[in-house]
Amino acid sequence: MRGPQCPPGNAVQEQTVKLFDGYVCQNEQASKKQCEIILSSLSAPMMKKLKQGFYAKPGGYDLFCKHLEDIKKKYNSQAKKQVKAEEVLDEFLKQKSVDSEAILQVDKKLTVKEQKIRGESFK
Predict the structure, then answer these.
(1) Is 122's pLDDT higher than 70?
(2) Beta bridge partners of residue 3, listed in sequence order
(3) How much is the pTM?
(4) In degrees, to the nearest 5, what angle opens at C-alpha 103 toward C-alphas 99 and 107?
């Protein structure tokens, strides 16, 4: 921003920098909000299934991971030009990692029980 025609400490330059920083901040906030709206819309069906216990079954973890991957692909195609796209997706995935771990534990327990039941039915 500094050039030979703008000496350091120039009031016009400082005001221009402040305006620019303000616009950058507004753009980032708008981008974050838009990305959150996109993710909320895309993840709504998965969240509904999660609340209904849809993934609490043998194979539920793989299904959850597939749905999560589908959301990521759709999100990346819809939010690709957003400044905060990657940051918002990373935060979303951190939140979902808790759900993912819980689903994995339930899936493992149910799969073991299912295998025991199958083993008993063959006897």
Answers:
(1) no
(2) 6
(3) 0.77
(4) 175
